Amino acid sequence: MTVPDPALLALLRDRIDAAPRGCAYAEARFVGRTFERIRVRNGETDAIDTGTSEGIGVRVRADGRWGFAATREITAEAIEDALDRALHVARTGPVASRGASELAPGPELPARGHWASPCELDPFAVSVEDKLSLLLEADALLRADPRIRRGGGETHAMRETWALVTTDGAACTQIRTECGGGLQVLAADGDVVQTRSYPAAHGGDVALAGWEHVLALNLVAEAPRVRDEALELLAAPPCPSGRHTVILGGEQLALQVHESIGHALELDRILLEEAAYAGASWVAAGDLGALRYGSEHLTVTADATLPGALGSAAWDDEGVPGGRTTLIEDGVLRATLSDRTSAGQLGLPASTACCRAEGFARQPIVRMTNVSIEPGAAGSLDDLIAATEHGLLLETNRSWSIDDRRLHFQFGCETAREIRDGKLGRLYRDPSYAGVTPTFWGGLDAVCSAPAWRVWGVMNCGKGEPGQMLPVGHGTAPARFRDVEVGVA
Questions:
Q1: H/E element holding 468?
Q2: Is 146 left (phi over 0), alpha (psi -120 to 50) or beta?
Q3: Domain locations along the chain
């Protein structure tokens, strides 16, 4: 990995400095990506997807309105043309429903310099043959029983080179490397079909790291356990319905945070700027500092500086430096996720550096970075189980559903374990749970301590129209909730 060519920054700088008069703000953002996804299934190579893309997105603000255009050509003429098209969009587009408003102030010091995410082993230097060998070895172990109807695994790698220049004086570059993978097995016996995933569902676990992250997952060593748990689920009874005390494992809690806190606190949703695409929120703009989101055990932060987390970066797509913001403190709402536009609409002194876009051809919008529940004082997962008289341990997401206000939800999990007298008991299959966001988080009464806390990656966070898919991170430790409605998925 090397720092992007300085000539690229100079090219962007020259064009942005020449932005037309009447343009209150302009930015040019280069994004180049290289990606690779390898997947095996039932002893065979299922897919090897690779590709590259690069281009420049130009955004301008004129008369209080945004305009955006993009080009795949990295030339002065192409950038000039994109500037003209973006300015035309800004000057002829409709006025926002709330009218024009000033942007929240940018950083006092313009974004300058270079940043790269940690990467000990370059995933693109590892041969496809070596990756396939690892996955096929794990896959063979997954399928060592006739009741296993499908086994498989995958790896993912992506490198993004980014450069940003703005009329506010920003001139900075970043390189982000993502890498990860996982296993999944499907077992069937009669009309009972069960799935087990490791270390997480929906593509495994991906981090801002190199190939070392895949090696640390120990896919081959974990494969027999994943297989055996899928087989055990075939003989397990359905999860008992009713209201129960529930402990959520870290991976499932990460998705719960994502759907019912992260998206709900994106300020454009709160201001109804995203409502056309299932993007409103039950939270109101006047709730800051007053709304009780959950119990006193709920403290949530947004932190773009977490090492290895998929939402981490030195700067967002407006050149605002990434930092740490307390969103919810002891159950009370303190802040939201914002860009300079939404923060300006609400009269906030600054954005929370949550302006991000999927690649060069999409306009930056409000996107969460790494939204995490802070560790509590409940010790390890074993300690929390020992302190629970009766309940269920739910682990590994299987499905999710939540309304457009992020208020009513239902999640399915792969496994449930009975907790009785502080000990794990029998296994149940097909568990689901449902709730209403503030009531559910109000039932939070314990979060495990820092040693049990880790960051999970979510690759498929969708938002916007046209749609954008971005990776985010969530730090969690297992947590306990009282009086949760549990059923069968």
A1: strand 468-476
A2: alpha
A3: 6-234, 242-488
| Burial class of residue 58 in the structure, from the number of CB atoms within 10 Å of its CB (0-12 exposed, 13-18 middle, 19+ buried) | buried
Whole-angstrom CA distances from 34 to 30, 123, 165 are 14, 11, 22
Residue 389 and residue 483 in contact, taking contact as beta carbons nearer than 8 Å: no
226 phi and psi, to 5 degrees?
A: -60, -45
32 φ/ψ angles, rounded to the nearest 5 degrees = -120, 135
Question: Would you give the distance in Å from CA 413 to the centre of its chain?
Answer: 19
Q: Are 351 and 318 in contact (CB under 8 A)?
A: yes
Q: How many CB atoms lie within 10 A of CB 353?
A: 28
Q: 190 CB contacts (<8 Å, ≥6 apart)?
A: none
Of 445, 443, 423, 453, the C-alpha closest to 485 is 443
Q: Could you tell me the fold of the domain covering 6-234?
A: PmbA/TldD fold (3.30.2290)
Question: Mind listing the pLDDT tens digit for each residue in 452-485?
Answer: 999 999 998 999 888 999 999 999 999 999 999 9
On whether the CB atoms of residues 299 and 329 are closer than 8 A, the answer is yes
Gap between the Cα atoms of 381 and 448, Å rounded: 6
Nearest to 58 by CA among 312, 317, 353, 274: 317
Q: pLDDT for 398-420, tens place per residue?
A: 999 999 999 999 999 999 999 99
Instruction: Write the pLDDT tens digit of every residue in 434-450.
Output: 999 999 999 999 999 99
Distance CA 71, CA 69 (A): 7
Q: What number of other Cβ atoms are within 10 A of residue 284's Cβ?
A: 11
Average pLDDT in the chain: 94
